[in-house]
Amino acid sequence: MKAIILNEAGSVDNLQFVHIAKPIIKNNEVLVKTISLSVNPVDYKVRSTNGALNWILGADRPAIIGWDLSGTIVEVGDAVTDFKIGDAVFGMANFPGKGNAYAEFVSVPSTHLTLKPTNISHQEAASATLAALTAWQTLVKKGNVKKGNKVLIHAASGGVGHYATQIAKHFGAYVIGTSSAKNKEFVLQNGADKHIDYTTENFQEMVSDVDFVLDTVGGDVISKSIDVTKNGGKILTITTSNLAEADSNKAKEKGVEVEFLLVQSSGDDMLQIAQLMEKGILKSHVSKTFSFNEMREAHLYLEQGRTVGKIAVNI
Question: What pLDDT score does 51 carry?
Fold first, then answer.
C-alpha cells in the first residue's frame, strides 16, 4: 500500500513516500481504505520537531503520522460488532499515541469511528475529526456551554475555531470570534454574533464578563483572556499545559479556571458530530484540497498559519 513515513523529524523532505504491507488488524480494530484525510497544525509540529514526534508517537521508527481520515471498511476484527465491510466511516484514529492516517489502508479501533452521513463528502468528513472533536470536547464536555453564555473563540476562522463557532451557536451561546478582517464575513456566517479583528482591535477593550474562552492561539492570549473572563468563568486552551505563574495567580484571584485539553479519539463523540452534520447544523469548510502525492505542499501551506477552515488530502 501507499504510505508516508518519517524516519526522523525535520523539513517536509523528511516525509518519505513508500510502499509497505497493509496493517494486520487486531480483534477490536477495522481496516479502513482511506479515501480522504485531513491535516492539522499538530501534523507539522510532530513532523518538524523530535520532541513532539517522540511525545506523540514514541521512539519507534519509521513512524506514520496523521489522525484524520474518512473511508470505507474493508476488514473487520473478530470482536467488532458495530461495523461491517463496506461501511463508510470517519474519525480521528488512535490519538494520543500512534497515528497512521497517512496511508492507503489504516487500522483503527472500532470505538474511534462512526458512520459517515450520506449527505457529506469524504473530504468534509475527514476534516471534521480532530478539529471538530476538539471543539466538541472543549465547549460541550469540558465547558458545558449552554444557552445565554457569552463565549469568546480565538482564531474563529481556523480549523477548530470554525467548528467551535457553529457548536457554541447551536447550544444558544452569544459568540464572539476573533480573526483578521478578511475573514470577518466567514466568521459571522458561521454564526458568530460579534467579530473582532485581532490585527487592529484589542479584544480586552471590546468584551467583558465572558463565561467561556476557547484559546487556540497561545502566547499572551491566555493572560489577556483572563482579564475579560468573569468570576466563575472558564478558559480552555489547546496550546499549552504550562501556565505562567503570574497568569495562574491572576486566574485564581479572579476566580477563573484555566485548563489545558488534549483531544481524545472517541467514536461516541464522533457520533454526536455526525448527527449535527447530517442535520446541516455543523458544516466543514474545506478551503483547499491536495492529492496524497502533494502532502509536502499541504504541510507547507498549513504552516503559513492562514488556513480558513480545513485542508483535505485525497488518496
Answer: 85
